């Protein structure tokens, strides 16, 4: 074990890829885990024990839709009994007063609710389902239960109306609103041309977010995640590879970032065949881009390398076919032209390709 590697702080537990929604911006992989290949309850309980054992303090129960797992209450109990802060990342569909009361009794501490648009017409079109009313009802239940609520919106060309989204989140009683411009991973990459916001939309959004964040200070925190293609420097993705968080996919694959299965060259370990501790500290996948040793120029000698860690490995692989390259979003990257070309000619695509259902096998 490398003594310089810190323990993980958080674990994203993707309990299932099954989901009642069909969002075109879905960042889950193109090939979803079939229901029959999901970890069993016993295996997930072992994962939670092992995660706490290596230091995990925050457990994000996610998917897909985690409410699709009948054993969710049992998993919440175990995570909470282990002393973890338990967050449910949900579409809200399937959340009833009884289920929420039960989960809260068992130790659920926080709910993160996705919203697809500022009104039912737009939101339901993007979700590919009549979901919006359920989300408003789910938010009311969370507030009645006295739990903190984060509303999460993935922004793109068809919903880039931040003023209306902020007003909606306020009406929902959100304590925190995340407005995150789409990252083009997994299924979202198929829809990039239809999703990419226009420069005018982005320019209009920034002052609105700034003014509203000021107005709502102390009431509702607003987190705005910029559209990185338009930026000069890349995002500090995952705050560094293998630095703070690990993801366990529905089939037990352990990933240094939720999108890392897109890196075809990355060997992936599974909780069924290797202890989580070994994977975190000693696996090829978690050590591949940890720290700075793997960096090449221009990152290797760059004054920003401890600020952004060379950007995003998944993006470097998806755009350049080389996960060890400097994120091409970076203006210092010799490949920045790839991103500039995409901005100039995003391609012709009006209609979304909607996310399909998970296969039984
Ligand atoms: Fe970040 Fe590398 Fe660009 Fe420097 S060259 S700003 S470290 S991505
Ligand atoms: Fe995987 Fe950035 S999304 S490293």
From TrEMBL:
Domain (Radical SAM core): residue spans on this chain: 5-217
Q: Which organism is it from?
A: Actinophytocola algeriensis
EC number(s) on file: 1.21.98.4
Domain of life, per UniProt, equals: Bacteria
Subunit description: Interacts with PqqD. The interaction is necessary for activity of PqqE.
Metabolic or biological pathway: Cofactor biosynthesis; pyrroloquinoline quinone biosynthesis
In its UniProt entry, what is this protein called? PqqA peptide cyclase
The free-text note explaining how the cofactor binds reads: Binds 1 [4Fe-4S] cluster. The cluster is coordinated with 3 cysteines and an exchangeable S-adenosyl-L-methionine.
Under catalytic activity, the entry for this protein gives: [PQQ precursor protein] + S-adenosyl-L-methionine = E-Y cross-linked-[PQQ precursor protein] + 5'-deoxyadenosine + L-methionine + H(+)
Family, similarity comment: Belongs to the radical SAM superfamily. PqqE family.
